[in-house]
Request: fold
Amino acid sequence: LYMSVYRAKQWYQRRVRGRKRIVIITQQEYPVLVYHDGEIKEYPVISIAPEDIADTNGAGDAFVGGFLASFARDRSLHECVQNGINAAHMILKVPGCTLPERHEK
Reply:
């Protein structure tokens, strides 16, 4: 179910009540919604053909891992979200929660 920016902002305001938070809502093929400092932003996801999706298990966890790895390194919120999206996109293409082999240069 796609959550509009307006509905996401209402949801956030009812639950956070003045506490400083970052709220992230992932929505499968719909944009990721990020609410922070009173603003909500949409981040488009990378489209993927249904036949290229091997497994959806672990995609949300991969998003969180990609996001937090960047967040822990004090990257911008934009970069954190993009890295989360990239990690989730990669996981969708492989069976189970595994990463493809890493190729060193």
